[in-house]
Structure to design on (642 residues):
């Protein structure tokens, strides 16, 4: 080309530029144009702008645009679309600059700039562009109409979105799907279903949108029926259903769907496995989680950092922190989520030294911790009562990383001070907060009052929470426990009457255990299981063995004014003890037992399980509402500090 410069014209340069896939190639051609003294016309200038945007160099694209003597709608639209795709506010600035220069936008310009309003949540500017569309006469264009509809939906203005939809002369499947997805996203599932039934033509995307919307907003039965009726299901449809099941509390159904997916010959991808791993995590289904891990390795997907992080999280939350670290250690690439997940896992298991050590390694690696990382580190300090270390890390957030603490960080500090018995310091810390404390902050302090039997402060704090969240049952239950610990039965009855008058129901204890890849659920005093007789016989045997070993029931945790024998009977039938007895009956001697409990494990169960772990020589791992307890040889990993 260099030997025949006289024969090179705009079309030749443009043709070469269109074939450039890498930035160095495109720059080489651009350099040749400049050095040859060739003056690009508008067509070649547009091609250069397009080449730079496709190669990811928006600064070079903008420089070329600014140097062009003449620019048309194509020139501006190409670069506006590129900035909008990146969610950059520069897209809107360029649009207004284009209008000032007198260049009229076309339908492609409008369709390109509207997504910028979606990404940035700038509804007012979206409305201004809507007026420009009307003035320019492009409102009837299907492409522009769909973009406008999508903008209103994503900016949260569902009424205007519907108005745009109703005014469209032609509605393609994209427009219908956008409107249905918009209704579903905003919880208007009935409206979405009505529109879906009217839809003249449906594709996989529209079916997936309505199914995901139903599942997201607790219309699970309807979502499942629609999924079964779906004429054609691709892996994206399966993924949406599996993920929504796992996210909305239907984890067992998510695992069943995964098995069905494989039976139907659908090849799972990274998103499939992410949803299934979440389901395993929710159910502490460790054995099934291990099988999923094997499939991921078999399909050579371990290079996916998101999937690797999900595996670390699954193992940590299913009670196998050793496996979690093995996965973490072998990750080919670690991002901030990888480090944070492992640190939080250590914190959850009470392995404070490991959590802090890993945090230091993270900083040394050059990875900058984020807000969630500090929640993990502060939780670790709280679980071990490391008040001074917790204060240092809290200060480090703003001093070193210039992060502004959010409510979760303040909550960790209140929990740290409160559990350590520094209740006055915790109150002082709350009073000095730059933001108004919410019910969660006060709830942490109330929980500390329960631990340290501080009735007076507990009553005051409970009143604050009743005002903020009068329908939340947790503060009532904490106050009941405080009164029970102090033997104030008249006050217990007053709180119960208050709960009855306000229609507040106590959340019952529930425990889950996985045996032979099946989840078994137990509630307090449960007698619904087919092995009930064996379970209660085992409990009776264990009770006798514990008493011989020195166990004394902690009857203060019974919220009823009964005689000691009746209290003993109630304590013996707590859900975690029933689940434990079931596990011991149905597993081989020496097999570790993992139990999930929806509430904080009570003091009596904690004491009893320590005795049982020594009697049967088995490691018992309990995940309660706040952390893990590893019971072994009569001891707990929490060191009785929880």
């Amino acid at each position: 080309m260099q030997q025949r410069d006289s024969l090179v014209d705009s079309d030749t340069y443009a043709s070469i530029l269109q074939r450039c896939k890498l930035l160095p190639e495109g720059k080489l051609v651009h350099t040749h144009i400049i050095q040859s003294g060739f003056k690009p016309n508008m067509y070649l200038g547009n091609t250069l702008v397009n080449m730079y945007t496709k190669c990811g160099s928006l600064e070079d694209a903008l420089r070329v645009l600014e140097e062009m003597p003449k620019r048309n709608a194509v020139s501006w639209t190409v670069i506006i679309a590129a900035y909008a795709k990146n969610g950059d506010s520069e897209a809107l600035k360029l649009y207004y600059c284009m209008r000032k220069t007198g260049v009229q936008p076309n339908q492609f310009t409008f369709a390109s700039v509207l997504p910028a309003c979606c990404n940035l949540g700038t509804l007012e500017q979206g409305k201004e562009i809507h007026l420009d569309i009307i003035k320019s006469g492009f409102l009837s264009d299907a492409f522009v109409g769909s973009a406008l509809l999508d903008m209103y939906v994503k900016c949260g203005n569902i009424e205007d979105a519907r108005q745009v939809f109703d005014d469209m002369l032609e509605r393609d499947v994209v427009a219908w799907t956008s409107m249905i997805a918009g209704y579903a996203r905003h919880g208007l599932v009935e409206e979405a279903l009505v529109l879906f039934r009217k839809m003249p033509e449906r594709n996989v995307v529209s079916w997936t949108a309505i199914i995901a919307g139903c599942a997201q907003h607790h219309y699970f039965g309807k979502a499942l029926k629609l999924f079964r009726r779906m004429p054609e299901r691709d892996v994206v449809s399966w993924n949406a259903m599996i993920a929504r099941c796992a996210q909305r509390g239907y984890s067992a159904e998510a695992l069943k769907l995964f098995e069905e997916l494989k039976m139907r010959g659908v090849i799972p991808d990274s998103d499939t496995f992410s949803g299934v791993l979440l389901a395993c995590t929710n159910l502490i289904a460790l054995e099934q989680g291990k099988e999923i891990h094997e499939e991921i390795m078999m399909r050579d997907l371990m290079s996916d950092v998101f999937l690797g992080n999900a595996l670390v999280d699954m193992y940590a939350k299913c009670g196998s922190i050793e496996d979690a670290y093995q996965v973490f250690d072998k990750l080919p690439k670690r991002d901030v989520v990888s480090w944070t997940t492992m640190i939080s896992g250590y914190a959850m298991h009470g392995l404070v030294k490991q959590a802090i050590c890993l945090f230091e390694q993270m900083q040394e690696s050059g990875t900058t911790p984020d807000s969630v990382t500090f929640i993990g580190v502060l939780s670790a300090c709280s679980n071990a009562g490391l008040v001074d270390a917790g204060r240092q890390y809290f200060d480090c957030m703003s001093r070193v990383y210039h992060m502004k603490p959010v409510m979760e960080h303040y909550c960790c500090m209140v929990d740290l001070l409160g559990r350590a018995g520094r209740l006055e310091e915790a109150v002082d810390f709350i009073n000095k907060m730059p933001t108004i404390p919410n019910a969660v902050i006060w709830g942490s302090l109330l929980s500390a009052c329960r631990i340290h039997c501080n009735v007076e402060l507990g009553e005051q704090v409970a009143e604050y929470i009743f005002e903020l969240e009068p329908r939340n049952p947790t503060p009532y239950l904490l106050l009941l426990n405080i009164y029970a610990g102090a033997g104030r039965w008249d006050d217990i009855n007053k709180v119960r009457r208050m709960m009855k008058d306000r229609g507040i129901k106590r959340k019952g204890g529930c425990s889950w255990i996985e045996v032979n890849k099946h989840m078994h659920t137990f509630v307090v005093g449960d007698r619904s299981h087919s092995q009930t007789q064996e379970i209660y016989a085992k409990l009776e045997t264990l009770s006798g063995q514990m008493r011989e070993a020195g166990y004394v029931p902690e009857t203060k945790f019974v919220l009823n004014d009964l005689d000691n024998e009746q209290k003993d009977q109630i304590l013996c039938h707590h859900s975690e003890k029933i689940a434990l007895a079931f596990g011991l009956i149905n597993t081989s001697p020496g097999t570790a037992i993992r139990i999930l409990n929806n509430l904080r494990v009570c003091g009596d169960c904690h004491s009893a399980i320590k005795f049982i772990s020594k009697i049967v020589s088995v490691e018992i791992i309990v995940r309660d509402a706040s952390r893990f307890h590893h019971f072994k040889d009569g001891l707990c990993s929490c060191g009785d500090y929880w």
Q: What stands out?
A: The radius of gyration is 31 Å. The CA atoms of residues 591 and 604 lie 24 Å apart.
